[in-house]
Design brief:
about 90 residues; mainly beta; five-stranded antiparallel beta sheet; three-stranded antiparallel beta sheet; 8 strands
Length: about 90
């Protein structure tokens, strides 16, 4: 299995010239425009959700990453800054 591309298992995505979204199960876990990215686990902070968020970043060149340390999630943003993850967070695509 390639870890830099999304699988179609319970996962749907749509990409346009100005943005897109990735839905896993029934949750839009990643939504983006040319200016911002929204991340949302909807409370399902699972290994699979985190992996699909990272696969989305790779597949659509969004330049962020999500990782876990000491049971907490963190996001390394496109500008290189690492911040704590929270649902429905918005990060800039600078």
């Amino acid at each position: 299995m390639a870890y830099d591309k999304l699988s179609t298992y319970k996962t749907f995505w749509d990409e346009t010239d100005t943005g897109g979204s990735v839905m896993y199960q029934r949750t839009h876990i990643v939504t983006w425009t040319d200016k911002v990215i929204k991340l949302n686990s909807d409370g399902w902070e699972s290994v699979t959700t985190k992996r699909k968020m990272n696969q989305s970043s790779h597949q659509f060149n969004l330049n962020y990453s999500v990782f876990q340390k000491d049971f907490a999630w963190y996001v390394t943003q496109p500008n290189g800054e690492t911040v704590p993850y929270y649902d429905k967070m918005i990060i800039n695509r600078v």
